[in-house]
Design a protein that fits this description.
135 residues, mainly beta, Metal Binding Protein, Guanine Nucleotide Exchange Factor, Chain A, six-stranded mixed beta sheet, three-stranded antiparallel beta sheet
């Protein structure tokens, strides 16, 4: 899979199979995406590469709410668009940053206890008040 930011200065590729495709309704994801939820694919075993623009990527880390780590949001400093957040064991890719079809569809809504009051979930996906623990 390939992707980029809005101005296309930051480009990336990720090879592997996403472990989950979440629609996250937490207040931080809503603020970071500017929408009712953040559509995000998570990879645990994948090869990730910044194709261009890695020096333009910044990561904002919000304070810890209850347990570490704090909320991380990676973005392009030129256009402000979200880009993947890469840690040692997890790669989180905003679905909107993908250039093509990831071949997987959203699987669940998470943090629905915190969803925007003006948004109504109308699909049949599973809904979780918090984020379920990985298997």
């Amino acid at each position: 899979m390939r992707g980029s930011c809005l101005c296309r200065a930051v480009r990336f590729s990720v090879t592997g199979i996403p472990t989950i495709f979440d629609l996250c309704h937490c207040s931080r994801c809503r603020a970071a995406s500017g929408s009712a939820f953040l559509a995000e694919l998570e990879f645990r075993a994948a090869k990730f590469e910044w194709v261009s623009g890695q020096s333009l990527v910044r990561t904002y880390e919000a304070p810890v709410h209850s347990t570490p780590p704090g909320y991380q949001h990676a973005f392009c400093v030129v256009c402000g668009a979200p880009v993947p957040t890469v840690t040692e064991d997890i790669i989180r890719v905003p679905a909107g940053a993908l250039d093509g079809d990831p071949g997987i569809r959203p699987q669940r809504h998470i943090f629905v206890d915190f969803k925007a009051p003006w948004f109504q979930i109308t699909d049949d996906l599973d809904q979780f008040g918090m984020k379920p623990k990985p298997d």
